[in-house]
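tokens incoming
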């Protein structure tokens, strides 16, 4: 008998006709399936919406489709799905990524057993886009790390496809923000002294590098500007003191140049040596 968790799964969809079936299948094949799957078409200009309708016909009323009339970006698309979600917990997945079959079972059970936790994430694997590796590796929750405000300020500790959170928290993704919107939401949650944890268990796969690949991560300068604007927002909200704000701005810029060096100097150099 199929077990159901009181979880709404949300996938923002934009020009993802080639990958969405993989993502949806990974949700449908959970050992504890979410109560519902919400697919939000962000005014795709290809045949993504047609593919979503095919998937709905396959899985029935378990799949809900939200059709947006104009392209608003992943943050606002997730909010649109959040608005129609009916369950107590929400889990996010991107249209080109995939969950391990045990993801909902392990993470949902942890959230239920620890009701003081408002948001949790977990570890993941980074796989090549054409990988045929099956997400069937053995998994077990080894440890749990409490995530602090300063840990999050210095580094985004959660990728969005790893996150499960309580539906009724008083925050949402920043409307219209197209880069690093997830990090800002996590910061607002933890900054409000709500509990956040990271589960040491590998429950997802992403199919592109975190930086320098196609999609939102491809424009590193836009991402950097968005991170700097997050810190400015927190400063203007009086969540940061001026010296903290200056430190974080400087630290972020230093990380940005380090990424450039790794991506455009060290990585090509290592590839040349291997050849």
């Amino acid at each position: 008998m199929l077990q159901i968790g009181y979880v709404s799964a949300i996938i923002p969809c934009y020009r993802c006709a080639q990958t969405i079936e993989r993502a949806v299948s990974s949700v449908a094949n959970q050992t504890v399936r979410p109560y519902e799957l919400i697919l939000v078409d962000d005014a795709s200009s290809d045949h993504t919406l047609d593919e979503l309708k095919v998937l709905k016909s396959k899985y029935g009323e378990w799949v809900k489709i939200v059709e947006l009339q104009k392209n608003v970006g992943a943050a606002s698309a997730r909010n649109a799905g959040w608005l129609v979600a009916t369950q107590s917990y929400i889990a996010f997945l991107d249209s080109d990524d995939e969950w391990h079959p045990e993801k909902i079972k392990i993470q949902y059970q942890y959230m239920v057993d620890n009701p003081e936790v408002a948001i949790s994430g977990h570890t993941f694997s980074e796989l090549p886009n054409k990988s045929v590796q099956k997400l069937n590796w053995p998994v077990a929750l080894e440890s749990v790390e409490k995530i602090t405000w300063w840990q999050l300020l210095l580094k985004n500790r959660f990728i969005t496809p790893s996150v499960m959170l309580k539906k009724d928290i008083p925050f949402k993704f920043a409307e219209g923000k197209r880069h690093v919107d997830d990090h800002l939401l996590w910061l607002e949650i933890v900054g409000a002294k709500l509990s956040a944890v990271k589960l040491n268990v590998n429950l997802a796969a992403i199919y592109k590098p975190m930086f320098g690949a196609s999609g939102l991560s491809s424009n590193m300068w836009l991402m950097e500007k968005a991170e700097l604007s997050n810190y400015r927002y927190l400063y203007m909200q009086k969540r940061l003191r001026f010296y903290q704000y200056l430190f974080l701005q400087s630290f972020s810029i230093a990380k940005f140049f380090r990424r450039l060096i790794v991506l455009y100097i060290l990585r090509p150099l290592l590839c040349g040596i291997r050849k």
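note: The first helix runs from residue 20 to 28.
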